[in-house]
């Protein structure tokens, strides 16, 4: 493939057919012989050279397949800026090639995962970040920058992601046919090969391609028929769907990268969200047959259809972290937000006023509303429900907006969540966590939401089921506990008949207001986490415990709470074990948050407590003066003192 022999001063030209044969031999050797792929991956110059073979349509698929396999085992990430004429190469791809190229890009722009769960602890991440700062940008970040420098790259991806799926009848037989094909096709490259064969045969002899429709299988695993048929419409649609999956994944990664601000602006400009909204009703969100099909990478309890996958991929990366989340609505829904603010006599949200109406969704419903409708139709245990709840919650996350909350409350979201938590007695920890987080954001500081809660949870039996779900795993429910605690504090300081009525009637507020309840939560929140096991998932437990103590400090009750923690330690026959652990956790908190602007802003926005008050409270608790009534060390007896342990990782 790479001749060095010169004949009469000219390089020997190897035909595309010869290159295809070489690539096929290499690929099959990799498949059949252990270690060959790894040896090829070690030849960096060879891997770079393979990219140059993608200029030819005849060798594109074979090259892409081989590159994908090699990169899958390559220890060090390849750098795209070393590929000769990368910009020209990518710019000359047709839409089909570009979509398949995204399979390769997915490997080259994602940070490499070591596969070790310990490396996901915050200690390890902080150490890695310090190391990265000294080493400069990673290969993945360099590759992202290289792609974003290609003119029109993001625009083409947006067009691919939002390109209309071929029209279909939408009948049950069509939907089942589509699933039948998917039972043996889960690779976009396989689909490309089949589509290419169909196109070539059509061009050469104008004959119909011999291709089996879904149905009974032969020994080779392919559906069979005795009749010659056209390549099914369902196959063509599946081809398009697989493209969208790859393209959306690449966009997700770019949205979370260093150049995310630039990408956010571009996807808004190129109307990615309205485009996805227009595709929504034409895609399948549920399996329509009783087949036992399980998608690659999903478990038996997952209800996703093949068509759902691109949207799952997109929502899993928080699509609503777009700089203007209101692009998820249409003009009518934006007007509804304005009307809610006007009726409540509160200032309209500035971001709503500044939204470019030409970039929002069109049609009768925006994408957010469609996602809500889909989520309500899912079974309580569906993993799809988890991702959708995450997406809706991220719409609410940040500075609390009454209008945003009321927009969702008017669509029955709170009652639906409570039904899933209480009446269906959902057992899935992931789904429960996403619902508790969403419920907390939906109810925070909102009197109307607490009234709706009390109306739904209208018996002691229901309330006990709800408490059982909360107490079964505080790691999952602590964000709700935090939001209710913050809301209670605000309501108690308001003089309003409506608020007073809610305070006197709401079971949940009455329960959280009791000091024994708060102490029980505080004790367990501190006890279930340690510095060495802190992750992005459970660090919220530490921050929730801090919220409880900050509010106690406001009421000059911080010494009381610390004294009660000390008594609880003694009652468990382990004096010092909890407060020593809490002391270490707060030392780590200072290291982690005082150098990360983004995290500190999130804490401030979500709690409506200034970050300076967070820092002051932590400093007071860590005061080394044993005479201070608000210092942790004042409540740890000398024989049990263990507060200077080094928890840093090399």
From TrEMBL:
Membrane spanning residue stretches: none
GO biological process: ubiquitin-dependent protein catabolic process
Protein name as it appears in the record: Transient receptor potential cation channel subfamily C member 4 associated protein
Chain's gene name: TRPC4AP
Superkingdom classification of source: Eukaryota
Pfam families noted in UniProt: DUF3689
GO annotation, cellular component aspect: Cul4A-RING E3 ubiquitin ligase complex
InterPro entries: TRPC4AP (IPR022162)
Any one Gene Ontology molecular-function term assigned to this protein's record: phosphatase binding
């Amino acid at each position: 493939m790479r001749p060095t022999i010169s004949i009469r001063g000219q390089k020997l030209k190897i035909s595309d057919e010869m290159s295809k044969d070489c690539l096929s031999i290499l690929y099959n050797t990799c498949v059949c012989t252990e270690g060959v792929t790894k040896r090829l991956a070690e030849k960096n110059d060879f891997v770079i050279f393979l990219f140059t073979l993608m200029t030819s349509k005849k060798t594109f698929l074979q090259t892409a397949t081989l590159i994908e396999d090699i990169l899958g085992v390559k220890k060090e990430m390849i750098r795209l800026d070393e590929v000769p004429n990368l910009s020209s190469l990518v710019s000359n791809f047709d839409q089909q090639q570009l979509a398949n190229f995204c399979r390769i890009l997915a490997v080259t722009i994602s940070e490499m995962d070591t596969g070790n769960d310990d490396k996901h602890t915050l200690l390890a991440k902080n150490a890695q970040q310090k190391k990265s700062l000294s080493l400069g940008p990673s290969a993945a970040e360099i590759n992202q920058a290289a792609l974003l420098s290609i003119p029109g790259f993001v625009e083409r991806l947006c067009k691919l992601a939002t390109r209309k799926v071929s029209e279909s009848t939408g009948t049950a037989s069509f939907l089942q046919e589509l699933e039948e094909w998917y039972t043996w096709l889960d690779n976009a490259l396989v689909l490309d090969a089949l589509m290419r064969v169909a196109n070539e045969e059509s061009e050469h002899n104008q004959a119909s391609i011999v291709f089996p429709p879904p149905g009974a299988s032969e020994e080779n695993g392919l559906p069979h028929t005795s009749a010659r048929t056209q390549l099914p419409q369902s196959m063509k649609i599946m081809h398009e769907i697989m493209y969208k999956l790859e393209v959306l994944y690449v966009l997700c990664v770019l949205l979370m990268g260093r150049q995310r601000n630039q990408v956010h602006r571009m996807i808004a400009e190129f109307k990615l969200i309205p485009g996805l909204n227009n595709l929504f009703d034409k895609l399948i969100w549920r399996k329509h047959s009783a087949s036992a099909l399980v998608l690659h990478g999903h478990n038996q309890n997952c209800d996703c259809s093949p068509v759902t996958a691109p949207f799952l991929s997109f929502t899993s990366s928080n699509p609503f972290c777009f700089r203007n989340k209101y692009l998820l609505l249409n003009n009518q829904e934006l007007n509804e937000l304005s009307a809610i603010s006007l009726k409540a006599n509160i200032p309209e949200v500035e971001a709503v006023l500044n939204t470019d109406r030409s970039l929002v969704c069109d049609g009768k419903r925006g994408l957010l509303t469609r996602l809500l409708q889909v989520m309500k139709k899912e079974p309580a245990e569906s993993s799809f429900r988890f991702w959708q709840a995450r997406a809706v919650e991220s719409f609410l996350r940040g500075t609390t907006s009454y209008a945003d909350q009321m927009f969702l409350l008017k669509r029955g979201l709170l009652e639906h969540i409570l039904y899933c938590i209480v009446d269906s007695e959902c057992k899935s920890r992931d789904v429960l966590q996403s619902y508790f987080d969403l419920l907390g954001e939906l109810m925070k500081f909102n009197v109307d939401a607490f009234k709706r809660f009390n109306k739904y949870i209208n018996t002691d039996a229901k309330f006990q089921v709800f408490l059982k779900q909360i107490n079964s795993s505080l790691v999952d429910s602590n964000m709700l506990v935090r939001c209710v605690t913050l809301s209670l504090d605000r309501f108690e300081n308001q003089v309003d008949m409506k608020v007073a009525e809610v305070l006197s009637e709401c079971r949940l507020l009455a329960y959280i207001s009791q000091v024994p309840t708060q102490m029980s939560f505080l004790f367990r929140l501190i006890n279930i986490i340690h510095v060495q096991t802190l992750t992005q998932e459970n660090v919220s437990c530490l921050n929730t415990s801090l919220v409880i103590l900050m509010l106690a400090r406001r009421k000059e009750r911080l010494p009381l709470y610390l004294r009660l923690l000390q008594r609880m330690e003694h009652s468990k026959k382990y004096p010092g074990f909890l407060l020593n652990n809490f002391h270490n956790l707060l030392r780590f908190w200072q290291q982690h948050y005082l150098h990360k602007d983004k995290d500190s802003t999130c804490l401030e926005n979500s709690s409506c407590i200034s970050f300076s008050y967070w820092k002051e409270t932590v400093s007071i608790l860590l005061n080394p003066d044993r005479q201070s009534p608000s210092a942790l060390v004042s409540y740890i007896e000398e024989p049990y003192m263990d507060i200077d342990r080094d928890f840093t990782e090399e």
